[in-house]
Structure formats: C-alpha cells, structure tokens
Specification:
heterotetramer, A: 283 residues, alpha/beta, Glutaconate Coenzyme A-transferase, 10-stranded mixed β-sheet, 3-stranded antiparallel β-sheet, globular, C: 256 residues, two-stranded antiparallel sheet, 14 strands
Chain lengths: 283, 283, 256, 256
Amino acid sequence: MAQIMELKEAIAENVHDGDFMALEGFTHLIPHAAAHEVLRQGYKDLTLCRMTPDMIYDQFIGMGRVKKLVFSYAGNPGVGLLLRFRDAVENAWPQALEIEEHSHAAMANAYEAGAAGLPCAIFRGYRGAELAEVNPNIKSILCPFTGEKLAAVPAINADVAIIHAQRANRAGDVMIEGIIGVQKEVVLGAKRAIVTVEEIVDDFGDVSPNAVILPGWTIDAVVRVPGGAHPSYAHGYYARDNAFYKDWDRIARDRDTFLQWMEEHVINAGPDAFGRYAGKGSR
Amino acid sequence: MAQIMELKEAIAENVHDGDFMALEGFTHLIPHAAAHEVLRQGYKDLTLCRMTPDMIYDQFIGMGRVKKLVFSYAGNPGVGLLLRFRDAVENAWPQALEIEEHSHAAMANAYEAGAAGLPCAIFRGYRGAELAEVNPNIKSILCPFTGEKLAAVPAINADVAIIHAQRANRAGDVMIEGIIGVQKEVVLGAKRAIVTVEEIVDDFGDVSPNAVILPGWTIDAVVRVPGGAHPSYAHGYYARDNAFYKDWDRIARDRDTFLQWMEEHVINAGPDAFGRYAGKGSR
Amino acid sequence: MSEPTLSEIMTVTAARALKNTDVCFVGIGLPSEACNLARLTHAPDITLIYESGTIGTKPRVLPLSIGDGELCETATTTVSVPEMFRYWLQGGRITVGFLSAAQLDRFGNINTTVIGDYHNPKVRLPGGGGAPEIATSCGEIFITLKHSSRAFVDKLDFFTSIGHGDGPGHRARLGITTKGPTRLVTDLCVMQPNPDTCEFEVTSLHPGVSRQQVTEATGWPLKFANQVTETAAPSDVELDALRALKQRTAEAHEGA
Amino acid sequence: MSEPTLSEIMTVTAARALKNTDVCFVGIGLPSEACNLARLTHAPDITLIYESGTIGTKPRVLPLSIGDGELCETATTTVSVPEMFRYWLQGGRITVGFLSAAQLDRFGNINTTVIGDYHNPKVRLPGGGGAPEIATSCGEIFITLKHSSRAFVDKLDFFTSIGHGDGPGHRARLGITTKGPTRLVTDLCVMQPNPDTCEFEVTSLHPGVSRQQVTEATGWPLKFANQVTETAAPSDVELDALRALKQRTAEAHEGA
C-alpha cells in the first residue's frame, strides 16, 4: 500500500546495496531526482536494468556504483555515445562493468512477462542477430502448434523499480500520461516500487476510465518531486531539455569534469534543485 | 484503410460463407446491429469465436448458421443458461454444433497473441482443469529457463472481426472507451475488420494521448449505427438493457417463440431499428 | 427489522470472511453480493476486481453481468481483458478469488461445464469462464453457493476448476503454489477443509440449522469438525446494508 | 535558392522512396529526417511510428530523441512500449523500417554494437535497440547513412541486425518472410540489392558524383548495376521543405 513520504526516506526504506534495480521511463518521465537520491545515499554493487541506460545510468556507472548493467540501447539518444558507459566497458573505469545486452523487443517482452508473473517471454526475435550468441539469457522454444522457433528471454522482476509520473492522489494511486513506455510493467513486475510525481492531487478529476493508473496498493512509496524528471520531461508539465542532453556529451567526456559535475549537482544537492524545472502546462 | 460506408455494404464486402468470424465486446459494446445484418444476409457454415457467446451468438446458433463455436463462457450473464446454444449442443437443433472450449484466460491470451503476430500464447493456466483433456488445442511448453510447464494455445486470427465502438473520426480512426475487453486485439489479429460506431465526428477533441484508438489503416469498414450495441451498451451513450437480457431467457426457451422473434426483429428489420436505443450521455 | 433469512445469513457470513486489505477477484451472482456487502460494511477499502477489467470498483447497485457500466464508472481504472488475466490475475496480485459453482465436491473442486458426459451432455452449463485460472492464481479461494444434494455431489460430472484435487499434495504436484479453497459458505453452514485430509467439513451451523439438515442436503458422507460453532447472526447494520443493496439493485434492473 | 548539398540530396532521395500509403517505423537521425520530409512533401498521409509508442505522429520539428514530447502530442495515439513491439512491429503491420548504421556490409547487414571484439571492444557503440526485430518484422527495410570506407566495410565487427545475411536464401533459412533491405541511400548514390546475389550495387549516382568517388568511399569491392542513372536533383519544393524543417528544428532545440 502506497505511503506518501519524503524522497530521502522512500529511497532509504526501499533500496539496498546489491539490489537489482530498474529505473524506467522511455525518454519521457525518467526519474532523475530519485536517481540522484540513490547516488547520494551511496548504494553500491547494483545491478541496473533499463532499456535505454541514458544519462541517468551513465551517472551511476561513472560513480562506480554498478556491478552489472542489463540494457538494450546504451546511447545518448540523438546525441551520440554514452561516454561513462564506454569508459567502463572499454577501460573498466572506475571499475569493470558486467553487461547483459538485449534488443528493445526482448526487454519490452521481458518486462511484460515480469508484470504477468510468467518466468519467460516468447517473441519472434533475434533472427540472424549475433546478440543471441553472446548472451546466454537468449534461448528459444518451439511453438507446439506450428513448430516455429521463437526467441525466449527471462522475465524481468526487479527488487526495486523507480518511475516518475505526473500525478498521484491521496490514496497513492498514480496516473501516467503520454509516452508510457514500460512504466506499468516495471512496477507490477518489481518486489518494491517507488513513484515520484509532479503533483499530489485530491482526485484525478474527469479522466478517461482507461487512463493509465497504477492503484496505490501496487506501490510502496509515492513522493512529490516537482521537476523530478528533468532533463527528461513530464508531458503536460515541462519539455525535454534537449540542450542539456547535448551538453552531457561534454560533461561526461572527461573523467574529472564528470566527477566535479556530479559532486556539485548531485552529491551536494537535494531534490529541491529540481523544483525550478517544474512548470505546469508548459511544454 | 477504413472506408466509411453503410452497414449492408460493409457486411456484404467483408463476410463470406464459412468464415472464421469473431464479434467481440466483453459485455460492453457488443455489435448487435452488425450481427443482425450478417444474419439478414444469410451467411452460413460460420465458425464463430467469442469469449462470451451470449445472446448475440445464441441468435446465430438458433438460426442454424454456425458450424463451430470457439468460446470460454456460454451463459446469459447474470441470468442463466444460453438456451439456443444448449439446444444445439444437447439436441443438435437446428443442427449439430462443433465446439472448441477454453477458459477466459486462454482466449484473452490467444487474442493477444493474434494481435502480436505470434502463432501461440503461453500462460500459467489449465492446471487441474479437465478442459485440457477434451480440447486438443490446449498444449504446453517448458520454460527454457526454469523448466516450469506452461499452457499453450493457438493464437486467434479471425477472417473477419466485428466490433462496436463509441466514435470514429473522418479518417476512420476509431476510439473505444470504458470496458475495452479484447476489442483492440480481435481487430489487429483479424484479416478484415468492421467497426460500427455511435457517432462519426470531425475529430476526437481533447482526449488523452493514451486513449484507446485504432488507426483507420487497421480497419476495413467503419459504419455509423447509433444504438448498434443494444441491448448491450455504449459507455457514455446508453445503458445495458438488463431487462431485455432477462427477457431473452423467455424468448430463447421455446424454438417457435425464438424463430418468430427473429423473423420480426431481425430478418424483417434493419439497422434503423437500433436508433431508438441511442442516447448521447445517458447511461 | 424482520429476522434474517438463511440466504441473508449466507451472504453476511460470506462477506465477513473478507478483510479491508483484500484484493478480491469477484464472480458474478452470490460472490458479487457478498463482496459488495463487505465493502459497504466492515471493509470499505477492499479492492474489488471483476474480470471485465474493472479494478477497484465500487458499484452502488449489484451488476447483473460481469461488465455492467456501473462497474467501470466507479472503478479506479479499467484495463483490457488480456491485461486483466495477465498482469492482475496471473501476476499474483489477488488475495482472494470468490467463486460459486453448479456442482462442488468434498475437496472444493468445481463443475460449471456439463451435467452428464462432456461430448454428449444432459445439461450443457455455461462453462468455466475465468474459473480455471482464478482457482489457481489467487492467494486463496472462497466459495459460496446454496446447499443441495444436486450441487454438493459425491463425484463431479466434469472437473472445471481445481480445489484440492484428490486431496493433500495434489495442487503442489501440479505446480500450484496458492492455497486453494479455504472457506465455503452455504445457506446452512460454513465449511472449511480439514487440515489433514483437505476435505470440506462443517465448522459452523447457521442459527436454527441442524446437522441432519446439512447432511441431507449434501451428496457425499458429510463430516463435521471436532468443534462446530453456531454462525454469529447478522447484525442490524449488516442486514440493513444488504437489504438496501438488494432493493437498490432490484429498482435499477427493472428501470433499465 | 542555393544549390543542394550532397547531404540534402541524400535526404530528399531517401524521402522519395516512401509512399503516401506506407506505415513506416522510423529510426532517429537521418531516417527521421527523410521520413518527415516525405510527410511534408509528397506523402502527407504516411503513417510514421517511433518505437517510443507514438503512432501516426506529425512533428513540426525533428525530435532529438526517439521520444520527444512533440511526437506524442501530434500522434494519433500513443501505446506502451511492449504493445509497440508486440502488436505493431511483430504484428506485421509495418510496411517500411527505416534504419541507419555505424557499419554496413555489402548484404545490408548492420553493426551498431561494437568496433572490435564484443567482449573487449575498441569502441563500444550504443547497441541494437529496436533494430534486430525491425530488420526482420517490417515488410522491407530502407537504409540511409553517409558514405565512408569506415562505415561501408568488407566485414562487420558485429552482426547487430540482419540484412541479406550471407546472400540469397539466408533470410528464408532463418524463417524470416520479409524482404529485408531493398534500398540504400547515401550522400553519394543510391544502391539496391542485385536480384541474383543480394549484394548492394549502385543504381544511381547523385549529380556530380563519380564512380571512383563512390568506390573509394566503400570498403568492399563495389559493383555497379548494368544501368546506372543519375539521381534526379531535389526540386525547389523539396529543398525548401527540408531547409525549413531543419531551421525550425535548430531553433526549437536551442530554445529548449
């Protein structure tokens, strides 16, 4: 049952060293503020799972908190490579990084299977793709009706899932709108779930009966963090800060620049820093 | 690409004798007007597929149009048994009826697999259930990661799907709201799809970006039939006619009463007969 | 207020088995009546889920079907039917599945498919619907139906959904990890599975009901628990809530 | 209007390959530019789909990422990512997948994963993302990228997604029923697979480009079709639309 609480407390209660952790949001609603709090609290040996590790995991990797990364596209979307990730894979800096790499289709299906309580997902995939030869977690089954060979991957069930959403109500129900990615799946598939939101409202008002809503009893902690997705965005609240994504390429290129930036903007900052990016109704 | 057309023409162009046909709508938005037009045009030897055959298929069965029925719950929900279906199964009246029977979970998964272009669906089901012994289309696979035995059923891909929805726009995009059942899945899984709607509007206005919308290019024919779901209902338009569902028990109990009712209300009627049940905004 | 009928005692007693924190997958008919009564009395925050996709629904009147508009209009959210069966039922999120039956055996196995032979039935019933997977995916199962020797049979004509199968260990052998039927409420008594044999035995008799009455209405050699209590009578609050609910429902269904 | 650059000819030529009736799965970068140009010129009704879940999107400016807000705000509908990959891509509803590449071989196989050894890479690239299944699920594949011998290689370092594999019949042997890459547009030429060998060969040269220039920018022994035409130059309308799109995009991304 969702407790409405402060970010510090939500992370402290639900994250542990060595956790299998998934921070999701497909370009949209990436939980940057929550990620920063996890970094501040110093958790390490994490196995991080995310379709697009992106800037948010580049920070964990560059800070040496990640043992293993499960992913399907490790770029800075539209900008270029993910430079702290590169440094870890190519040079083991600041430490070696174990990787489990999939295609988007595989991970989307694996999250779906995780939410559905199945041990694995099947799909028509990986045909002629070399990943199937380097990742032992890609197997296959034969359709018992047609004999067709289909790819199989294990379901994703994180120890803790963290997402960002637009709104929660007082009961802790969470509503998500726009590019909804795998938000529902990662929460329903996880043992524990934290949701940061732009606003907590009395009720959602006159929304569609089919609005994407996670009932409060599927969530452990709901935290109000206005602007908490920045530099990602919140549909209906504020736009993606594309200029910042471009700038990340410069920040992450050099180890010292990166560490200084992290010290100043993450380690010595707090969730309030995100407040200035919040903006109801702006794009 | 959806053509906006008249009901008569939509059915004539897309339905054929012997088709594997699925008219869906889980209690809500059942396409009764379209079903009546199919009956009027006299198609026979149909294989009918539907989770809850309900009154709508009771009519096809009683009129002798059905060769085979694929289903998971053949009752008059909340009222009792489905009497024309019973008469066909128990007494082969007016003709023998072949059946393929599943659980709801199996059929929901099979529709999902049909939409997803897979040959089969897997799920944790049918454990200790005798249906698995009488239905050869229930098989199993072993999870290649855990060894767990999971049930498998073939995907459902109808020759023609028919659904009812609230609204279409001029481009033939269709919007569905409320209890959405397997509407999206049956359309995306079918070779051809017909959608009857309460209204055709210029645009959907300010709806959620995640509203359930089937783009026009996934549909063959869109037909305006106000009240076309009666005695089922259309969320936001008119309520379920529960009294009529109760009355169906009386109508369908006797073969002659049934045939007379069909003659009067279906064979010698037209889609306009549904207009009087339409009602924007009423429940 | 008039005395409660046995039917009313059945519904009230079934409702009492539900907790405020339960997430309940609701079958239509008697289960729906009991679940909504629980919500309107001691369990206001109970989450009721109907297989039509409606989650956290709070209908003012009882739905006739599993997908009446009222269920959607009062729900927290409404999802597609595939999502309902995949994420919510199979996902293991349901604490209690509440079922009824046409035939039931001593192990809580259920038949709602046929009377007679499957391929040549005497009476063709509706079939399982959601029951086969409800019976295995929910944390535990409550069953409610009226007592009669036609319903409480020695041997099922068809095995629609599993209860305790042929007894201890059967569920586990099939890879089922949930509890199965833990409580059966009829219009005569409450029954619970014997911890050693898994066979349903009477644990409480409704006020004024005799052992003989129950035994005669049961098609198998009925057993009674070592301690058989009397079912606590419905309170005025419960009875009032139930009668008002049924009254509202009758009016709404006539007026439709 | 100033003369078109080779980059502009590339985008215009890539855009022309798309039809008004196509349903196109759009990769970010050059493919997105070409697809939106097609939509803004000769193919106003083309359906553009981005893997973020946005279906029928009509962005006013080019998105920087695959999930910019503009894509959702202008879409017919936005679905979840699992639904996107299951119902829309795997469901066989896409006529054209439009990809780019880091490395490409003569059979249109693509590498976007690593330069060097997978387990000990010289350069770790982003990886496949949606490409492995886009390459096999779409009706056909168009590819666009700039010509260079570093990109057009004799042998891929990693086989991220399949084109024609090792030649005729390879896709069929893997159970793939779609066409694979049918068209490759670079900043120097247009290439199409030879119907007998499946090897990409030059079918048209952009205005002012010589055979030698293309051969030198290609890392495998390049072949030319029997008939090599000159790529039709961009029209003023096309060029105008492209330049305005890029101008709007630059302004929007700076201002963000």
